[in-house]
Amino acid sequence: MQNVFAIYFLKSKISKKSISLTNPKPIKMQENDQEHFKRELGLLDGTMLVVGSMIGSGIFIVSADIARQVGSAGWLTLIWLISGLITIIAAVSYGELSAMFPKAGGQYVYLKEAYNKLIAFLYGWSFFAVIQTGTIAAVGVAFSKFAAYLYEPFSDENILYELGSFKLNAAQLVSIFTIVLLTYINSRGVKNGKILQTVLTIIKILSLLGLIVFGLTLAAKASVWDANWADGWNTRAFDKETGSWLPIGGSALITGISAAMVGSLFSSDAWNGVTFIAGEIKNPKRNVGFSLFLGTFIVTIIYVLTNIMYLAVIPLDEIATAKSDRVAVVASQYIFGNIGTLIIAIMIMISTFACNNGLIMAGARVYYTMANDGLFFKKAAILNSSSVPAWALWAQCVWASALCLTGKYGDLLDFVIIIVLIFYILTIYGIFILRKKMPDVERPYKAFGYPFLPMLYIITAAAICISLLITKFSTCGWGVLIMLTGIPVYYLTKPKE
Q: Of all helices (H) and strands (E), which one includes residue 433?
């Protein structure tokens, strides 16, 4: 999964009074009303933040579940490709918004400007309660599980404390330690987080490309490839109880595709994290949008190529039945032999560590911006001596750590993705609203393919949401409920105007 996936700053000096429909001259949005954030991140840093936040553990495990849901090589590849294209369309659409509002807070700011503070608050509420913190927790636990390959006592089977139904295991403590460590690093200044993110993400990209190349050159077999594609487009579902495949079609196929898309979309999420930290990006009107496109494009290519490698190395039945869904471990064993497990474990640890660094760095900027609007704890609006919102970082750390202890991180997937998609839809529709609401505001970059590609995204994402609510109401319904509980909270806590 991995969520995912953030981020925004400062109030715009453009008020309703400053926008005149009769004004022949374009109005320039203020780039940054706050002078305390340091613009230390370039195009490479922004791109690495996008790539690093997107690639977590999902690409190493999600393909197993997709294979079980749709049962064919063609549909496995297509689902990853569709998820990638949807993500790229969303990213290039966000480019227009990021250029209009080049400030910290990203999606929160866009929603506030296009709609109102209530919609923006519901996003921020969901972001803190589930989206960002839940993803941080899940990625942290993924790190600890694979760390157990190197040191077995880190395993989630190592129970350290029991109280009734609550069980504290070593993996949970390791995940919390990594979250605390990364929070501390980022609280010392954006430069520290930037260096760590760039270095680890480059290592991550090279490692994945190496796995792809070695897989296709050392372990690929024509017999495996041909067998996987013999019925490449016949849809089947894997029955775990009987260990057999059953043909599916109609509503069952829709259910299977919907379930499969959850994992691939979650693995492609968190790409918008660079918008959250736009207040610290050099030349944000250019670099934020360009980072969004480059990052999502790179990740989509890597994801599709990785799955092609899987299909060339591993029989589809083994992909679907991989132990603990660790498809990459199976592939690595075919490629490198017994040492393959160790190699993948190190790769995933690097991947998840970099992923969480990006998530932690970006997320706090949303709470910072909300606090400036009086919609979050006041202390979240304070920058420390290193010019970062340290209190917001540590608040995020505490809640994410608590989610690690719940043991429910795996259950977060369904209702995280539906909340994410709902707000992506609202944000991209906001482009249409702002074209009418602020026609004279300078747009250094305009949404690619407008209005067709943004509308295509809205229709596609809405269809996925409806399908998820129909087929997975028991979990996705909770996501919608969490979001809606923010409405009374907003009216009870909002400052008087």
A: helix 412-437
pLDDT digits (tens, 9 = 90+) for 290-301: 999 999 999 999
Phi and psi dihedrals of 243, rounded to 5? 70, 30
Q: Is the peptide bond before 451 cis (omega within 30 degrees of 0)?
A: yes
What is the DSSP track for 209-225?
HHHHHHIIIII--HHHH
Taking only the tens place, the pLDDT of each residue in 338-378 is: 888 888 888 888 888 988 998 898 888 889 988 988 888 88
For residue 185, which amino acid is it?
Answer: I
Predicted confidence (pLDDT) per residue in 120-131, tens digit: 999 999 999 888
Domain annotation covers residue 462: no
Torsion 365-266-195-198 (CA) sign = negative
Provide the residue range defining the domain that includes 254.
Answer: 36-410
Is 315 in contact with 231 (CB distance < 8 Å)? Answer: no
For residue 216, tell me if it sits in a domain.
yes
Here the CATH number for the domain that contains residue 326 is 1.20.1740.10
Q: What would the mean pLDDT of 239-257 be, rounded to a whole number?
A: 81
User: What does the alpha-carbon distance between residue 2 and residue 263 come to, in Å, rounded to a whole number?
Assistant: 8
Decide: helix, strand or coil at residue 376. coil
Q: Is residue 278 part of a domain?
A: yes
The reply to whether 495 falls in a domain is no
What does residue 377 show for φ and ψ, rounded to 5 degrees?
Answer: -50, 135
